[in-house]
Amino acid sequence: MSCSSPQKEDKQTPPKSEAQDIVDKSISHHGMEQLDHAEFSLTFRDMSYTYSLQNGLYKYTRTQTDSIDQEVYDVLTNEGLTRYINGDSVELEEEKRAAYSRSVNSVIYFFRLPFGLNDEAVIKEYQGTTSIKGKDYHEIRVTFKQSGGGEDFDDVFLYWFDTEDYSMDYLAYLYHTDGGGMRFREAINPRRVNDVLIQDYINFKPEDESMDINNISELYENGELEELSRIINEGVAISIK
Length: 241
Fold this sequence. Notes:
Structural class: alpha+beta
Number of strands: 14
Number of helices: 4
Oligomer: single chain
Largest sheet: 7 strands, antiparallel
Shape: globular
């Protein structure tokens, strides 16, 4: 039992927004509260990834074999990305460095959702409840502050959280890099690794990628989205420090 005065707490701590409360409950349901002091590894599309985050210092890696049987090792940290080929660092044009950084970061970002929704640059807006496949979901729109939001700060995301257990079952996003586009993802294969709920996804797109993203769940309900790919994370190992 807390010994603090309720009135004092009210003055010092502003009430959570509805969106913040939902995200916090979802992170708790997914068992991701401690991912800021954790390591994990996984295989995605025959590439090996690792993640380490301690006290705000992160290190993401990706290992793959290229078409001429060379080992390509990318390391992304707070300082930027370095690429090694057969153990030797290589010079990269800035455009390629940015593309490789986005690619590595994207796999890690989506894998650890909804954890990343409490990053400092995230702006969360509650948009009410939506019914998808007969279940009710809290819908939250996410945009990003330009400061700290990275080069993709103008992207827009929608997330749907089960109103009963706060699982993150669907998401959609509008992006502008690499030609831009719009995607909708359905979570599949939920399972727990070291008490952390991880998921794979079916990746869809609308025929018209210039449409209003707020209507994309209706197209999904009506079977009007095209399946593009499956996001399958294999060999997952997680260690909480």
